[in-house]
Design brief:
heterodimer, A: 313 residues, alpha/beta, Rossmann fold, Alpha-Beta Plaits, 6-stranded mixed beta sheet, 11 helices, B: 260 residues, mainly alpha
Chain lengths: 313, 260
């Protein structure tokens, strides 16, 4: 459905994206992940034929984005990050306009608009000017305009940006419902969102592809180590040194805290039983153990690790 | 080129003009300004007529008692100046606003061609302009009712104004495509129009050949003859080329945005 090969876009001397390659199958939901300015929007704008790439190839729905942009544009639905809408237009009129230019037949326009508005939960705002709507509803109108011609491919640039937690939940639910047979590419910098709605993750940083994988695989890769969080009252350096000497400990990060109750994050090799080996050391030194718990590895850690690895390399 | 897409863009923009009251405001100001100017022309004509009644020499000296020469022709000149100031107010938002609000990004990713967008917008603005110009029809009707003006120069004068409007709107859309700032787009088109207007003043300071070129390029020279009732294909061609040229430049300008 989507084939991107060695895509590069330069803005003057600055490279927006640099040699990005990935692909998406029919019916797959792909999450685009990266810090601000990583090149997510640039990639999406090339895929939606808003502007051409400097070099490389992007094929969407079997058509080249540059040579056959008109065919591509018939088959996609796009929601830009800023959700640009005509504020002085009435919701229904706007969607009828979009349905028309996207090639829905004149006779079917009204029915299509009613159906799409129902699908996107817009029944309550029939006949209202878009400018009067809340951010959440405007986001839905944005989604509705992307969906109105029932496109094979949906490209959503940060669809949950700027919404309140309840709205975010609703939009995510909507996206999951929409998935079905459609190919969806969505970008976000909210990490839990990706593990919730996406089957595969594309992480990019500073215009370069970092990794493409399933969210589960990414977290599993980091799980060859386990981490413990400890709070111990006592001398910081002494404790750090003692913890570092324990068998199976790979790394100790220490943070001094108020009233001598210091915080430590201990990284253990896989298979080593952290609790069992640390406790005796603490007891024998007569330190006061305030807290001990396992640290969950989240997609967030994977992301930060991958992105910082890239930086130091 | 898809006529349906042109129609859809046209409908959207006409609705936006009349939905946001821009059209009403501009038409109202246009009527007030042209009405005031018409009143003054008519009032000075009637004073002259009274003077001529008392003293026949006045009429002979100035040859001013022709309604067409004293009221109709200056009226068309005045209307065209008001158009020069008002039409950029209608055109400045057409593309600049879409760019500023980001709706251009969506519009360009829909399966519509740039030409369909530009023509749809041109026609939408032209429709508002036609409504605006038709609001002045009461002035010549009043003259026909009160006096005996020649009708042909009135008709050709209106034809000239309709052509002139197309040229102004085309240039306005072009400047609107250059920037996302409506004020810049508007003031740029007013200044370029003034330039084309005032150009003819410099004909006397340059060589004859160059002066001829300048006077052909000057926009008001072409309106002048139509307002006199002279239909010259040269003038009509001038307006058509002016309009088409700037619509074409608008398309190029939109296209170049994609490559940056």
């Amino acid at each position: 459905m989507i084939e991107v090969e060695n895509l590069t876009k330069s803005y003057g001397s600055h490279l927006g994206i640099d040699g990005i390659t990935f692909s998406a199958q029919k019916g797959e939901t792909i999450g685009f992940l990266g810090p601000n300015g990583a090149g997510k929007t640039t990639t999406m704008r090339i895929l939606t034929c808003f502007f051409p790439a400097t070099s490389g190839k992007a094929v969407v729905a079997g058509y080249d984005c540059f040579e056959n942009s008109f065919e591509v544009r018939k088959r996609i639905g796009y929601l830009p990050e800023s959700v640009p809408l005509y504020r002085d237009m009435v919701v229904d009129d706007y969607l009828a306009f979009v349905a028309g230019v996207k090639g829905v037949e004149s006779k079917a326009v009204k029915q299509t608009v009613t159906r799409t508005m129902g699908d996107c939960g817009l029944d309550a705002v029939v006949g209202r000017p878009i400018g009067e709507l809340s951010k959440g509803y405007r986001q839905r109108v944005g989604l509705a305009q992307a969906l109105v011609n029932d496109p094979e491919i949906l490209i959503l640039d940060e669809p949950t940006n700027g919404l309140d937690p309840r709205q975010i939940k609703e939009i995510r639910k909507l996206i999951t419902e929409l998935a079905g047979q459609r190919t969806i590419v969505l970008s976000t910098h909210i990490l839990p969102e990706v593990s919730m709605v996406c089957e595969r993750v594309v992480i990019i940083n500073k215009g370069k592809l970092v990794v493409v994988d399933k969210p589960d695989n990414l977290t599993a890769n980091l799980r060859d180590s386990s981490r413990l969080f400890l709070r111990i009252t006592g001398d910081l350096d002494q404790i750090a040194k003692a913890l570092g000497e324990i068998k199976g400990v790979r790394k100790v990060e220490s943070t001094p805290a108020a009233n001598g109750c210091n915080e430590f994050v201990v990284e253990m090799a896989r298979g080593a039983d952290g609790e069992q080996s640390i406790l005796p050391v603490v007891v024998s030194n007569n330190w006061q153990l305030n807290e001990m718990r396992a640290v969950e590895t989240s997609l967030e850690d994977v992301f930060i690790q991958l992105v910082t690895e890239e930086d130091s390399a | 080129m898809n006529l349906r897409n042109i129609g859809l863009v046209f409908k959207k923009d006409v609705k936006s003009y009349f939905g946001s009251f821009i059209a009403y405001a501009v038409i109202a100001i246009f009527m007030a300004a042209t009405g005031y100017l018409f009143f003054n022309l008519l009032a000075s004509f009637s004073i002259l007529s009274f003077q001529a009644q008392a003293n026949p020499m006045v009429a002979k000296q100035y040859n001013l008692l022709n309604v067409n020469e004293t009221v109709v022709r200056p009226l068309f000149g005045n209307i065209s100046i008001v158009m020069l100031l008002m039409l950029p107010l209608l055109t400045m938002k057409l593309l600049a606003d879409e760019k500023k609000s980001g709706t251009m990004e969506l519009l360009l990713t829909y399966p519509v061609r740039d030409a369909e967008v530009v023509i749809g917008k041109f026609l939408a603005c032209y429709t508002v302009f036609v409504a605006m110009l038709l609001s002045t029809i009461s002035y010549p009707l009043l003259l026909i009712n009160l006096g005996e003006p020649e009708v042909v120069p009135i008709l050709t004068g209106y034809a000239g104004l309709f052509l002139l409007g197309a040229a102004f709107i085309s240039l306005g859309i072009f400047t609107s495509s250059l920037t996302e700032n409506q004020i810049i787009a508007g003031s740029l088109s007013i200044s370029i129009l003034f330039f084309f207007w005032l150009m003819s003043y410099s004909t006397m300071f340059v060589s004859a050949a160059f002066g001829q070129i300048i006077s052909y390029l000057a926009i008001n020279e072409h309106l002048e003859s139509l307002a006199k009732g002279v239909v010259d294909t040269e003038d009509i061609i001038y307006f058509v080329i002016f309009t088409v040229l700037f619509l074409f430049l608008t398309l190029r300008s939109l296209e170049s945005k994609r490559w940056r």
